[in-house]
Amino acid sequence: MAPHTVEPMLAGDQSSEEESSSEEFSADSDCCFKSWDLDGVEPEQRTAAGLARMQYTVFLSHFFVHGLVMGGLSATGVGVFYSYLHIPNYIFSAYFTIMNLPTMFGFFFGLLSDSRPIYGLRRKPYMVLGWAICSIVLVIAAAMKMPEPYYCVGEDGNYDKSVPPCNPTALHSATPIIACLALSILGVVIAEAAANGLMVEYTKQESEEKRGSTVSLVAMASNTGRGISTIIVGVAFNSKLYNGSFDWGLSFNQVCMICGTPAVILCLSLISIGVQEDAVMLADKISFRGALKSAWNGLRTKAVFCLVMFISAHQIVGGINTTASTSILVTWAGQRQLQRVLFSTAGYALVVGSVWMVRRYFLESSWRKMLIISTISMPLIDAVPTFLTIFDVIRNQYFFMGEELLTKIPIAFNSVVYNLIVAELADEGSEALFFGLVMSIRYLLDPVSSVLSNQIFGMFHPDLSDQQNYIDDTPAFRRTVALSYVVGYVCSFLCLLFFGLIPDQKSQAQQWKRYLSARDLYAYVALVPITVAFAYAIVVLVLTLDSATACLTFVGGQGC
User: Fold this and answer.
1) Is the alpha carbon torsion for 300, 306, 310, 313 positive or negative?
2) Is the pLDDT of residue 375 over 80?
3) pTM over 0.85, yes/no
């Protein structure tokens, strides 16, 4: 089959030679790994084809660096917030939700990318801007002075928990750290909104049987980056101050510098090489109003309504997880930073392998079946080491898998399927807007599941957030912890009820888009509950972060 083409159009350089040479570039994502036969091709055409390959590599590098930065920063979470600053479980969860708030504004940045091209380009300028912000903030974080740790440090380098804490106010010092991490994520989100629009454009130009190859490559690049940064940071960020095993190790500031370096390199690559996209003519520009109308028309369709309802149910119900997992990992399993990172890296390796198999063998397979298999299998696999650890049958840091393996594969499969569905449902010219809209709805609901988890498991007694209960390790408390895991697993299985809301494959997605009805009611029913739920979650999170109200049972505390 003849390859589809993407024209490598650079701003201010649209000569006929480049337009003709761009036909040598295949939009099929396998193009980057083929040896092209350029014998007899004119030098100008050969140069354009080489530039197209380089630009596609930069495009994939964006997702690799995205995974590298996000994976590296998230790998520091337990060490910095739980061990170094000694933040309680439910506040620890709230902090991470606040840190990821910028991900909820992908719709707005997608709207900007689609409707406000800069120098005729819709994607490259916003990618450069986003990575520039991320780089600058990470450099600032690298220079920021860290507070003293909560516990006193003993002569052996470990924390001496037998004496009163040396810095009891350490848990209140997390705000500047969270602010820097949130701003760096904001930069990533700006770049990601534009890159996702480009990904949808590439996907739409793939042949029917190959459609999904770019989406799979993107998932593989992102998770490879996460895996590499996790193991690098995990081995080096492994001092006893951060729940590690070594007497030496990187500081949090040094980790920020390590994560910022590839961001700077990518930013410079985007400036000098760019990504492959068509320049936007003045007549093709979309107004803000036109872009918003396009988004509203999409929400009015039953196909998009079903997708939004599926995402809502999956994020809220499936996102309810016990707040005891971190304490089990650290206190009962005795898992240190290095071992946790090894499990996390194994999880990313499984994800990359799974996505590669999907790309190689299962692009035409049922999306529903793939998600059902991953949803059922992962809790069943995780339950064995978890319950053996809870009831002290086997407590070994190498045996306990925890959430590192439980969550990654279903999340990766969900992301791949979401991207494939969006690629089929998005209208031409509003790819970033539509993708950002769907992803914003997805991320808007993350705080809801976090808040519900804090509130549900805050009612369990003995208290799941009290570290002393894990030290006392009574039979009654073990049963309470086990029950909290059962509740989380049941919520995961309840998601199986909603898989009928997504199309089974590309052809059905196209049929839904073409033939299902469109009504304003669908948009209102989709948006109003999500808006109310998000507002509710934000109120609870703000109360959680205020020391005067964090103890309220309403937000998961034990009462003031």
Assistant:
1) positive
2) yes
3) no
